[in-house]
Fold each of these.
Amino acid sequence: MVGFSFIIVVSPSSWRGSCVAGDGKDLIMSKNVEVLLTEDVLKLGNMGDIVAVRPGYARNFLLPYGKAIAASQAAKRQIELLREQAARRRAEHEGQALATKKQIDGMSLQIAAKVSSGNTLFGSVGIRDIVASLAKSGYEIDPKQVHLHESFKQLGTYQVLLRLFGEVEATIEVEVVDADPQGSTMDEVLASAHGEEAVAEER
């Protein structure tokens, strides 16, 4: 009896193709697959990006750890819709920022503070004081939009940068003045108080 043997030849090209599986089971023997990142991945992309990766990388790391999902047509369309919504929101925020810039760019604020001695403040004037002063003038500014290298500790006039949105910026002038120019400085008040205590102790 004559025996027969069969040899099955599989072309490597038949391994390739685009896989669209939610759980990654079909990400086998494909050259590259597209996945949709659900969070930022170092050196790969940001959340919402559609990237092409090796099937093993997708199957063994991105998909099981919830860092990506397979980029199906439905997922791609959903991302496009989200991007369109984000673009509209960005345009709205940018429009509001430009309107605010037009109103406050170059404006001057005056903030009164207690003086310790000379031109030195008793304490300092910082971001919260600037935001509060702007609010009194009718402008609601997020403290994160106010950029200072350091708080003001001297009487004087300062330029303050406001980063309103993206590249939209405004500069305002803040003048720090003595809250009680005719009165005693805090050092004088403290010295007077100490003097009175000393007299009381001597008695």
Amino acid sequence: MPTQPTLAARVLSPIRTVIQRILPEFAGELLGSPEIREKIVLAADATLINEFPAARALPGELRRRIIARILDSILGEPDTRSLTRATPTKAALEALPLSKEELAQLEISAPGNSVRGFLIDGHGDNEDEVASAVKDLLGEKWQITRLDPHLNCYRATNPNVILSVPEAWSLSHQLDETKAIENAEPDIEWIPAPPEIGGETPDFRSTVRSSAGADSHLSCSTQISWHLNLINAPAAWAFSKQSGKPAHGKGVTIGQLDTGITYHAELPINNQHILLNKGRNLYDPQHPVVGNKPLDPMIQGKFLNPGHGTSTISILTGHKKLSGSARDAKIIPFRINPSVVHFEPVRIAEGIRHAHEAGCDVITMSMGGPPSKTKYLDQVVARAAEDGVIICCAAGNQIGSNNVTPLVVWPAALDQVIAVAGCNCQEEIWSGSSRGPEVNITAPAQSIWRAAAVTGSLTPANPPPDGVIRGDGTSFATPTVAGLAACWLAHHGGRKALTKHYGAASYVPQAFAKLLETVAYRRPPGWNTKLMGPGILDAKKLLEAPLPAKGVLGWKKKKHAWAGSFVGGVFQLVNSRASVRSGPPSPRARAGATSGASPAGLHGELAYLLFDRPVLAKLLNPELELEASDSPAPTTRRSGASASTRTTAVNARAHEECLEDAALLLRSCASRQLTDALS
């Protein structure tokens, strides 16, 4: 991980910057008034979480308390302009009344953590030209690191620079325009936006729901292994044994990318089943407690998911009360994040690359986030798939209500990845599951029995904790499918045997995907195949099916309706508005022709913002259908018309109102190039 500025700089500099920017809005007000001070604090807080998404993970009370103290220091100085030359110090941070727990939260979620640098795809294969382009635009102190010796992908960092997301996107668009660079984007630590700034709050029930809590569960979920019975796993294992084939994934290695694991009675951490010594901590390898081991230090905090990795790996390898979907497979865990929504594409790509290089036949990952404009993640996934690795990723959990587009997250949305959606024990779609045309298969995700992690279980204990509880999430559907992928490989002799059968390793994951698409499912009445894949996984059909012919294999091109058709439609909507008002589209309306940004670059930023701010989809979508949703198209806040009415009678005024509302939001979170293009 690149070196960062001091904690004081990462906390205080962004807050000082936003305060100084908004203070002119309160010119003429009585700045000594407590009421006015409170308004300034709230305005600064909204600006902070708009532009520095890492700060969203901090408790609002903590953010506003720090902002208030810094505001007091600013208003107490006679010349506020002098503050632009002030450098935050450790002493200034320590002067705040912060507990050890709050300092630990700030270390992870300081506003200045939001942008780590830039991700870059180079033109051709000339690292020196890429470095020169970056240094010419950003300065000599920026460092360029090649992310993979075989790929023309880079990371640009400067530990002394703290950028907001709009500033970083603006610089990315300028990097795009250089000859040496094909694509550039900010390396953002993404945290979901809260509702007050146009986002929706994710449902984290999967990390807190317990069998003894107040949450209710369907009566059909009381039996601990109900999810395996629903997908016919016991019958599949029996079929392998009767056929004289290895069962339960024996001989197959699975890579698990998650928050790390803890010791638990359900987890055979013995370097025979769970290979702790082969795993790595890719998130914070210098952690003072766990070091480079793939263990979960169980850090508590907003948007953090302590124990998540323990729960998901228990779905694969539970041996006591639980029964893992591939309990005889070998599993290599990797700690890549403390949260399922702290999304950084480089970290996910690094996890996939390390799992691939460690010899994993299957990779399971129960996390994801927005699409990446640069190609590093895509190319790492493609290379692993080309080498015969089956990659299973969670489609995602609903962000907000069912009236907001339930986006399938990346990397599950990639062509070479098995995207897993969720159902319940009644064979119904789980209401919290993401859905869309990218889904490959559905598996049980609601009220799933899994191991409950206990804080402090970082060494073997006698006896180890053994609690199991129920939880919700496509996080649990994914290792179920990955475990059955391992069982399928084992049944057919493993990845090498299948590679020999087909003549190339690349056909192995394609064959698995083809069986899911055509044979290995059960389709309940009324199943929505456009959004949830062909049906619910049937493991027995998967293992009984003959291997598909080589001639029918190939990756199916996934349709990303919201990020492709819809993003392009937004610019079409702007152009049509310009045509209505003044004839042919202006240069600015043609995707920022005068702003120094390419249409592809602006599409990348807008796709990120649509993922981050679902309300933008509502405001920019008066007549465009979001195909990834099975609910009525969302209405604007000024119109109560039905979807059918809107699609047949949207007038120019409705276009204007939607775009005006969206422009207000975009001005607070988008680069100047994008706001120019859509203004």
Amino acid sequence: MIGELRNWRLIPSKAKIALSLDLLCWALTVIAAITAASALFFKVKGFPEYAIILGEITAVLALGIVATVFTGLFWLYRNIHR
């Protein structure tokens, strides 16, 4: 994937959209993992109010991941069946 980013101008526009959705999904996954780990840490340390807030943020990020995946699948279906 990094090699593809080096030649960004040479990538067709449809592939740029797919690559951008892929990178967005990876970024959301990493951020969701970090917030979930932080929520677990605060729950173990005895700060349930912080754990609840971070858990809600993790849930919103998980919804963003699902939305990104379905957007990518819809985009792929629409472009294949033209």
